[in-house]
What does this fold into?
Amino acid sequence: MERRRTIRLTVNGIRYEREVEVRKTLADFLRYDLGLKGTHVGCEHGVCGACTVMLGDASVRSCILYAVQADGQEVLTVEGLSSPEGPLHPLQQAFHEHHGLQCGFCTPGFLMSALELLAEKQNPGEEEIREALSGNLCRCTGYEGIVEAVRAADRTWDRG
Amino acid sequence: MKPAPFEYAAPENVEEVLELLGEHGEEAKVLAGGQSLGPLLNMRLATPGVLVDINRVEGLSYLRSGDDVLAVGALARQRSIERSISIPRRWPLLHQAAPYIGHVAIRNRGTICGSLAHADPAAELPAVAVALGARLRIRSARGGREVEAGDFFVNYMTTDLAPDELLVEARFPPLPPRTGTSWKEVARRHGDFALVGVAAVVTLARDGRCERVRLVYTGVAPTPFEAGDAEEMLSGESPTRELFGEAAERAARDCEPGSDVHASAAYRRHLVRVLTKRALGEAVRRAREEG
It folds into this structure.
């Protein structure tokens, strides 16, 4: 048993080894230890979805997971969707074109939830999209554009 | 917000888990999915001295459907209910309730047994487990035992589990022939805690009368609430809308909802009436389709 632990994990394709306090959330680890501030911290109790990242193949709330729990696993954050040189990921491009972001705070979480939905399913209906995104809150109430963006990304994303 | 400092252990087998729980007792908390525990820790409503993370324990993630039982290991995620081939057909109530458990990212991580052990009266799985007559396998360094779901939930977020015990498996029996089930709930946002939820399990006799009915609710009592009087009234009777209405009245009369910022007790009773009728109607229809 310990209060600090050394963890090894892969984030956006890069391997890291870090010593962390065991009570550090994965969200804080990504933001403060790795400097990946695209993952946002909103409610910090699993309601708002702003901290959503992919852990392995599944979306998770990184604010209610500890960094030590990601030891040995792969994490994908919004920074891993495309490289700084571009091009944008089809989802990012669609959010850009269909006004899927307003202030942008919730956007990384929406992108990761939408990524999971579209990776699992082609041509989802509007109800399915809304249900898949129901765990992400947009305080600007911009849902129409977000749903439209996910539909557009579904059409443009070549999963092959 | 950060959790208060704690010691962390990630044992690799059940024996080590039980040893740690035996050693630390009340001070220790089991971390499985962490989707309920995480918020409690972040808000410092819980400040355990030791977290025993069972995610590294081999062989607890199973969801095994045999002829006579569905066995759910302590680490089986809630999302696995949605992905299973056999569950929709043979344990349809689990499949019907699953999409209402939090959101996808929550279900990806949250475990079925964890939800039972956490025993939130607003949660879906405890009510489902009671309605299906699940049996819960419990282990500690002292030995093992089995408890019926109906006896497991003691009070608000309190179960029959002793501090040194681990819920290692939930066992769901198959449904009898000519049985239909339904899950209905009302929540402010899809995936949020329901104001009221109801599980209905109806078995029809060959002549079409109700042979056995179970009605179990969330959100109207400190534990899953079984409307015994309504169930009894329906058994032996031919299912009709009038009868469903009468059963709904009895369930609404007998339950003990509280008032909070989300809904008044009167509104929760109203929801019990409405949802009981809907759930019974759907369960009976499905039981008839079962032939």
